[in-house]
């Protein structure tokens, strides 16, 4: 990438591979727990640039029959670069016949205008909302540039037919978003059909699992929610010295 160093992240699981790509250099959402939130947005990536990152990942580890998912979950807000992301999805079948799904992460910025723009082309398309907290004041401190929670919820309900699944991502942080009030709000937010993914904070190359993550998982399940606590994927990533939200660096 001219002037910058960035790349795709190849998350290799037993039954499938996830090729996670950035959509922007820098990010203007400004999440307080993300290194990309510290700097300004440099620019959107073009679809040829994103496809080049996908091709590089597949050159390093050629397809081996496992299904591939293209995941817009690295640096940037894909909804702010939705045309280029859609063009990437259109071109995917020409890169490998093993791609079988697309995933978008979404911060909630401009939810009423932008959520309906996310387009996975011919692929089943998964939506991962970066929820992080279901109480507005707590979320405002974590995700600094986003629509209010009721607007996000209304937009998801309006557009949920576009998505094959909807997941709620929560990076659980000690003393930040892990109170009993946060737990109760999380249990109530959205639909029980939307799984809640509890992820560790990634800081300085290491996972920082929330001390209450196991408790959150069990209480959310008791409340009728599907909750999944992730440690292994994060561990595999950090062992490779790569953070999923690592900012592109100027050379
Ligand atoms: S977590 Fe995602 S949306 Fe938030 S600042 Fe980082 S790259 Fe941007």
Would you mind describing this structure in some detail?
This protein is of the alpha/beta class and 251 residues long. The strands form 4 sheets. Strands 2-3-6-7-8-9-10-13 form an 8-stranded mixed sheet, sandwiched between helices. The protein has a single domain, classed as Aldolase class I (TIM Barrel, Alpha-Beta Barrel), CATH 3.20.20. Strand 2 and strand 3 (17-20) form a beta hairpin. It contains 8 helices and 14 strands. Helix 1 (47-60) packs across helix 2. Mean pLDDT is 90; it is low at 238-251.
What are the defining features of this structure?
binds iron/sulfur cluster; alpha/beta; 22% strand; eight-stranded mixed β-sheet; iron; TIM Barrel; disordered C terminus; 4Fe-4S; rSAM_sf; 251 residues; two-stranded antiparallel ribbon; 14 strands; globular
